[in-house]
Amino acid sequence: MSRAELIARIAGKDALICLLTDTVDAEVMDASPSLSIVANIAVGYDNVDLDAARKRGIIVTNTPDVLTEATAEFTWALILGVARRVVEGDRAVRSGGWKGWALDYLLGTELRGKQLGIVGAGRIGSAVAAKAPAFGMHAVFAHHPSVSALGLKTMSFDELLVTSDVISLHAPLTTATRHLIDKRALARMKRSALLVNTARGAIVDEAALAWALQEHLIAGAALDVYEREPAVHQDLLKLDTVLLAPHIGSATRETRTAMAELAVRNVLAVLSGGEPLTPVAGAAA
User: What are the φ and ψ backbone dihedral angles of 164, each rounded to 5 degrees?
Assistant: First the structure.
């Protein structure tokens, strides 16, 4: 629904179940003084103003865990898709551009023996890493105090950029991670490297990514999220070396149903006087 409709419909309500496409800020919250919980159907919650919620005593919840495996599986679908140029092949067949088998036609890259660099060692990043051995890859994580405490193999972000064959992004969007992948970061990556983003679009500077692909500074990219969804940088749309998905990382019937149900359970728990099941840190508790 539009922002105006959201503000109009929230009036007098005690709870809001929202999507990551809904911006829930002070103006929205003030439209209903009785609002006690905002249940976001997503793991990320950058669409909700946590400071505004805390000041108003509003609990904010998200939907972790239930979408971990679906998103991790889809991350591997993107890795395989861009490494083996699956979408390019599909286009060639459909357009009549494929003229038959050839020894050097649409050559991709193998994953076996390669390094998977993961930025963000939360539930999804860890689940992606757990699947790496099945493809003969070894996973490393960008160093962070919380990551080191888990006993995972880590290295500095710069070393990860320089040494990884595939870099997969699973960090939340914060002031520190916004445009984390910029021109400098892309220039540090291997010329044969692949970049995958199933986290938040603004972690990647799309203009910088288009430049890096045009200049052949990296071999390819696969994106499921974008800076200004549903808009995509025009230069990326022209490149065969980037696989573009419409934000469907968690889009399985099982997972989307579980996400909605968890949001509802959070609301029911709070409205009945209990504790939220999955509260967001930094919001009212």
Answer: -85, 145
Give 152 or 195, the one with higher predicted confidence: 195
Starting at the edge strand found earlier in the chain, the sheet holding 138-142 runs 154-155, 138-142, 115-119, 166-169, 194-197, 220-223, 242-244
Q: What is the DSSP letter of 24?
A: B
Return the axis-axis angle of helices 68-83 and 123-130, rounded to nearest 10°.
50
Give the HSE-up count for residue 213: Cα atoms under 13 Å, Cβ half-sphere: 21
Catalytic residues: 200, 229, 247
Residue extent(s) of CATH 3.40.50.720 domains in the chain: 3-65+252-271, 68-244
Q: Are 178 and 207 in contact (CB under 8 A)?
A: no
Give 3-state DSSP helix, strand, coil % of the chain, rounded to 5.
Answer: 40, 15, 45
Give the per-residue pLDDT at 281: 83
Q: What is the CATH number of domain 3-65+252-271?
A: 3.40.50.720
pLDDT band at 124 (very low <50, low <70, confident <90, very high): very high
pLDDT of residue 149: 56
Which CATH number does 68-244 carry?
3.40.50.720
pLDDT at 285 over 60: no
Percent of the chain with pLDDT over 90: 93
